Predict the structure.
Amino acid sequence: MSASPALQLVPSQIQAWRDAFSRLKPSSPPCPGLSQSAWLPMYDNALDFLDRFGAEALEIGWSVTDLFGVHPTAGTIRADHCGALMLSGAKCTSLSADRMKHGLVTYYRNVPGRPTGIPVWEFRW
């Protein structure tokens, strides 16, 4: 008899983020500063991140705005308000408590003085 794969439980917070993010249209950028060609890979890679790293991110303290934050009126035009997944269309390659790597690009979390955005799904045109 072969061993069955271990069941992985998805934390409810991660599922809530995934559900909210999934309501965004992959064909339509949700805020200013994103082109359609930039948004589609960003959308796909954010869902991939939640599947691969979501539980770990939550466990080590990443918040919804650390990941999905955007400026409340300027969207991604104001990069200082953006979360790690709203700045790069590249897949996350590694995650730690204070940084996320996207290939050659690194997003540093908890930078002193960094303003906090709103989750991208709360942005209103």
In short: The helical segments are 12-22, 36-59, 64-68. The radius of gyration is 15 Å. The first helix runs from residue 12 to 22.
